[in-house]
């Protein structure tokens, strides 16, 4: 239980919560190290709206009865702290003799803070404290608190205690600025993000978030790492996700949760890389300047990673929100990957446990529908955004295609599908021969082979987390790179009831506006760099797609002229890199097959407006415009904006297009910060045919060159169209 207000001294407990808005008390030991000479007890108060008066009374009662208590910090106050001061008839006399506690003599403050402090001084009824001068600057400045002087003052001086206890709440009430409080607490050794922490109450809990500034034009309130599903461990391992039950707890949502287990290839972002099976967490970002009279559009980001790696925090969603000129609420989340998310087999089918990672996603979308309004978001205006696996047919594409769930269509209303599409990769039944082979290998590695079907899942649920993750990664690596990677979504007669191409041709799917695109060198990270001979090129395709006969393989050879035979082939590699002579040819063919052509097919078949892009700026000499490169541009991430003024503009333009589409379904509707050409929708015939926005063509600055290229240009882009006609023809011809 929480300590009563009349306790003789606060109890140094780790955490105590009480709904109805009393106190949350937490020991704050790092502060004591900053005042070793005083050896006092420090207690941090988190106040909830109505508690400032009670807490202030509590503070003074402790100061009156406990001379060994040196300071209490009010971590979260409301503007009505003034009322609390008045109710308690607090006199400013204790401060009159020490005005330097509020600011340094002669200190110049930003106008808004100086005015606020002057109001506070006037409110307290004293005329002996001269308000500080004001400047026109709005840059954050640290008030001259002279904490070092206060720390060495004798604890026997009650007026000093009184002043010290009031100092932080007075300044916060006057300035009401998060950045100021961050600096004050940082000096004292406690690293908190804001003075008034954002809090939102939903049926499951009250989420207390943080504020991310990072010099964004608009600071962003973030609610990080909160669970949207029960921990998928123990009996819930290899089970459908279970929603978090209603409750009255307070959850500190100020740090990302751990990523789901899988081999991480890209930097996860957001600090230390921590993974755990208990990973079904979500993050919500919103600008601090949300309109009060209406709900705003919502973006839900689905991360990529071949369904075996990746995490929500790879995407700098806070930056995307902070640089937007109009408000929207953004959501990112983790879902189960690898074997934990896609252990698809005859055994799991019997239990109704196929495509668990997709069920995680559906639960998240249901959570958004039911709760996002509490954060200011419009549940009737949701855009899905995803890259690679986050965009493939098995994710956004199949959420579009799903016609079985009665609630599916209302869960989202627009889609941004990056480097993926509803026909990306062959999609196979759960009981295909290769899936069973991969499943049996997994059972052997986890020491669960040779058991009856009914004993397999209990065995796997009792296995250690480490053994499950190691086995999952080992099986995936055995079939990598391949279109038949392990642990992929399957046709399950539920979320995925049919092949993607059949769905497109039927016309029976969610008709939502789509913005989609591909990168020029999608295949560079997925094919063997040592491919040297023409025979190896052909063998790659024969192994990857065993349904291709000699006739089809001959067509592939013709579509991608062999540089060993045709010296003028565009696939002749003259870069002087340590790669095989057939590598450039192979990566182009694979990129078309796996990414470019499915994206073009989306534009070809869709009955709603499609805005198509072609990402062409080179990041490296080897990778070119590599798979996923555009992700850091859409978020206006510093890794791109710091490269050059050209890349900053490229990031700004791409960011503005994507944000405008999220807000309106039209990449041109919202002006944004950067001047940009009109992006016309793709069309099949006439003047609109093949209209594609090409980004960064000719720019190789990041690859060490000097070419600046063209930021964005709308072209009738037919690159890859001829090759795609062939790959489209092979989509129905799959080998199960």
UniProtKB/TrEMBL annotation:
The keyword Hydrolase applies. Keywords: Hydrolase. InterPro entries: AB_hydrolase_fold, CarbesteraseB, Carboxylesterase_B_AS, Type-B_Carboxylest/Lipase. GO terms for molecular function: hydrolase activity. Residues 198-685 form the Carboxylesterase type B domain. It comes from the Eukaryota. Belongs to the type-B carboxylesterase/lipase family. This is Alpha/beta-hydrolase.
């Amino acid at each position: 239980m929480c300590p009563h207000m009349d306790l003789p001294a606060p109890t140094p407990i780790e955490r105590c919560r009480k709904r109805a808005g009393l106190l949350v008390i937490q020991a704050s030991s790092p502060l004591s190290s900053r005042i070793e000479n005083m050896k006092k007890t420090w207690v941090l108060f988190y106040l909830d709206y109505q508690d400032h008066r009670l807490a202030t009374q509590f503070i003074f009662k402790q100061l009156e009865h406990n001379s060994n208590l040196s300071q209490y910090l009010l971590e979260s106050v409301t503007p009505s702290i003034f009322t609390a001061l008045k109710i308690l008839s607090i006199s400013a006399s204790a401060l009159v003799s020490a005005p330097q506690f509020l600011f340094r003599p002669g200190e110049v403050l930003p106008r808004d803070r100086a005015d606020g402090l002057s109001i506070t001084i006037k409110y307290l009824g004293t005329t002996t404290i001269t308000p500080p001068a004001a400047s026109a600057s709005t840059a954050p400045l640290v008030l001259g608190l002279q904490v070092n002087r206060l720390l060495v003052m004798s604890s026997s001086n009650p007026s000093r205690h009184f002043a010290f206890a009031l100092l932080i709440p007075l300044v916060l009430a006057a300035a009401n600025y998060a950045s100021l409080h961050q600096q004050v607490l940082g000096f004292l050794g406690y690293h908190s993000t804001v003075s008034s922490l954002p809090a939102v109450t939903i049926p499951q809990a009250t989420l207390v978030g943080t504020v991310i500034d990072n010099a964004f034009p608009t600071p962003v309130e973030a609610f990080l790492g909160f669970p949207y599903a029960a921990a998928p461990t123990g009996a819930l391992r290899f089970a459908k996700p279970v929603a978090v039950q209603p409750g009255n707890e307070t959850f500190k949502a100020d740090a990302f949760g751990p990523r789901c287990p899988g081999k991480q290839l890209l930097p996860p972002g957001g600090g230390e890389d921590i993974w755990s099976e208990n990973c079904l967490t979500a993050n919500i970002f919103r600008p601090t300047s949300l309109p009060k009279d209406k709900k705003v559009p919502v973006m839900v980001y689905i991360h990529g990673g071949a369904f075996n790696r990746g995490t929500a925090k790879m995407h700098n969603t806070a930056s995307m929100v902070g640089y937007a000129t109009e408000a929207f609420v953004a959501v990112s989340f983790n879902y189960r990957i690898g074997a934990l998310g896609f252990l698809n087999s005859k055994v799991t089918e019997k239990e109704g446990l196929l495509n668990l990672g997709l069920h995680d996603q559906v639960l998240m979308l249901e959570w958004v529908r039911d709760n996002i309004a509490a954060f200011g978001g419009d549940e009737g205006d949701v855009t899905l955004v995803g890259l690679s696996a986050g965009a493939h047919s098995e994710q956004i594409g199949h959420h579009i295609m799903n016609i079985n769930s009665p609630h599916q269509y209302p869960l989202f209303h627009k889609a941004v599908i990056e480097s993926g599409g509803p026909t990306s990769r062959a999609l196979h039944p759960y009981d295909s021969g290769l899936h069973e082979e991969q499943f049996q290998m997994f059972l052997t590695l986890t020491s669960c082979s040779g058991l009856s079907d009914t004993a397999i899942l209990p065995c796997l649920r009792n296995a250690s987390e480490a053994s499950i993750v190691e086995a999952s990664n080992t099986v995936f690596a055995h079939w990598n790179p391949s279109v038949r990677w392990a642990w992929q979504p399957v046709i399950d007669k539920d979320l995925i009831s049919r092949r993607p191409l059949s769905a497109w041709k039927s016309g029976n799917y969610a008709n939502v506006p789509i913005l989609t695109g591909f990168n020029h060198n999608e295949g560079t990270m997925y094919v063997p760099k040592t491919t040297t001979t023409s025979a190896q090129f052909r063998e790659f395709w024969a192994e990857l797609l065993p349904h291709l006969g000699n006739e089809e393989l001959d067509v592939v050879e013709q579509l991608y002229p062999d540089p060993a035979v045709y010296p003028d082939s565009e696939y002749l590699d003259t870069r002087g890199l340590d790669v095989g002579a057939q590598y450039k040819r192979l990566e182009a063919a694979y990129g078309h097959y796996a990414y470019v052509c499915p994206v073009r097919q989306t534009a070809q078949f869709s009955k709603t407006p499609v805005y198509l892009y072609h990402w062409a700026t080179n990041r490296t000499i080897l990778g070119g415009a590599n798979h996923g490169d555009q992700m850091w541009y859409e978020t206006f991430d510093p890794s791109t904006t710091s490269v050059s003024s050209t890349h900053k503009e490229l990031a700004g333009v791409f960011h503005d297009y994507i944000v405008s589409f999220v807000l309106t379904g039209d990449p041109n509707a919202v002006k944004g910060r950067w001047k940009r050409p009109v992006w016309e929708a793709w069309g099949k015939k006439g003047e609109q045919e093949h209209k594609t926005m090409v980004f960064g063509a000719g720019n190789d600055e990041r690859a060490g060159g000097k070419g600046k290229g063209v930021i964005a240009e709308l072209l009738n882009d037919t690159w890859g169209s001829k090759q795609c006609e062939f790959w489209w023809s092979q989509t129905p011809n799959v080998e199960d």
